[in-house]
Amino acid sequence: MLKKFFSNLLSSFMGAWIALMLFGVVVVIVIFAVLGKIGSMGGDTTKMKRHSVLTLNLEGTIVETAPTVQMDFRSMLLNREENVQALNDLVAGLREGADNKDIDCLYIRCNGASASPATLHALRDAVAEFKKSGKPVYAYGDGLAQGDYYVATLADSLFLNPQGSVDLHGIAGMTPYLKGLFDKIGVRFDVFKVGTFKSAVEPYILTEMSEPARAQLDTLYNNIWNLMRGDMAQARKLKPHTIDSLINRDIVMLRPAEVALKNKLVDKLMTNRQVNDFFKDFTGAEEEKDVNYVDVSWMAGSSSYFSNPSSKNQVAVLYAEGEIADGNPSQIDFQTIVPVITELADNEDVKAMVLRVNSPGGSVFGSSEIADALAYFKSKKKPFVVSMGDYAASGGYWISCEADSIYADPMTITGSIGIFGLIPNVDGLLVKIGVSPQYVSTYPNGFPLSPVKTLTAGQAAAMQQSIERGYDMFIARVAKGRKMKEERVRQIAEGRVWDGALALKIGLVDRLASLDDAIDTAAAMADISGNENVVIYPRPDDDVWAVLNQMELNATQQLVARALGPQADLKTVFMLTDILNRKPVQALAPVIYFNF
């Protein structure tokens, strides 16, 4: 008996020791990876010289602002390392480059950036501002993706590789409808919603798109494309119908470069080597290697914007990017952002705030908590302006609607005023893996809402009533914030999404303008001048432990992976797990996929 005790004790110690060693190895790997990333960021040897070429590299994903140094464990598992650029850095770098006497020109290098229409439009506007300096703009691509081409059409000369093509195709999108997949793994959903157009729940319960969902996306895509097509046609001195013909009749995206040149989509066919020679001659460098290319993001380090957190007259720019979630640091976590808003309200150095919203919404509870914190900020009599990015819809509009003024991009997706309840039921999944839950409860309607038990009729009725109350609360908040009658808000609500230009017409936003314009307005309202008073919040906080927390594969992921079988890919497992882990009551816009 004693021998068995010591054997078990020794086994426990060995198990704990091995686990500790493995954890230590992971920690060391993560720390070295983070330090390596920080080191690589600090190891830039770029220098400013006379006759430098400012370079805007259109590649990777363009986000609102630079994320804190962290590792994306999912990307690691999927073996996908992504280049991320910050829109605010790109805009600031272009602004600084326009004023810098050592910069001779701007070179737009087109490598396939991933960005939504509003982000591309904001970047294009920044290039247009650069051109006002009188410095020339040149652009080149081995091939020209549509998003890159939209920005690059402002170039004085646009070059294309002779082996490349211009991928003009309009706007298309694909939404995966997942009911068939959920049926296979034994998951179904109880849905409660208000609003004909509140289509965010459709992919989970239908196999094809409803007519209202298709109609609103058709309108949205056409409105945004008409703006983009008009901008490109004007810049290239073409008629919009010419672009229509090139796409629909000639299928220009599949045609050789000579077709693009003949139809004036580009100015000249040149190889990458010839472009390098062009900049050597332009700058007067003796050799190709002597041309000094200065990256726009590096140039942003010289910007007087966002650089003085010790200012006594601050315009705080608070970024809210991602889904509104409860306890997820990679999204808009109300538990994190609410204390920041409260701190800004109580900080005497902060005289005004611009909330930069790029969110399709999310948790109703989180949206309400953030909105209440913003109301507290307003109670301090400080100006509060919202600037909308790609999205400010559903919960994203909930937190925006009571601002003193709301600015949006013409291509912003906003509105989607509505909420829904989505409760997964995994009883079929449990059967597949051999689990048979048994229930005992003192009240028929008293068993807590759970994905492992079907709702009773009484619970379902109460849930629908709760959704309707939440919708009424949302309507009342919008009516108050926008100074509209509730009847009018209900007419434009129903969960419908709107582009920024239409949102202006129906009163959901006040002006189509940039983040810089919103900052200028907030500063003027607070009687503040000087770019040095603009400060970004939240302040960067690089937390290794937060990185480690992202590395946990939770039980839901393991269940989903097991149900899908060995053929399941990690991307699908992560997507389904995110859906199953969402809060049951959501103010979330439909996911809109843009194919550029």
Description:
The chain is of the alpha/beta class and 596 residues long. Among the domains are: 52-165 and 255-302, 2-enoyl-CoA Hydratase, Chain A, domain 1 (Alpha-Beta Complex); 314-543 and 583-588, Alpha-Beta Complex (2-enoyl-CoA Hydratase, Chain A, domain 1), CATH 3.90.226.10. Helix content is 45%, strand content 18%. It is built from 23 helices and 21 strands. Strands 9, 12, 14, 15, 16, 18, 19 and 20 form an eight-stranded mixed sheet that branches. Strands 1, 2, 3, 4, 5, 7 and 8 form a seven-stranded parallel sheet that branches. Strands 6-17-21-13 form a four-stranded antiparallel sheet. α2 (73-77) links the parallel β1 (52-63) and β2. α3 (87-99) runs parallel beside α4 (117-131) and α4 (117-131) packs parallel to α5 (146-152). The longest helix is centred in the first third of the chain and has 41 residues, at 2-42. The protein is globular and about 85 Å long.
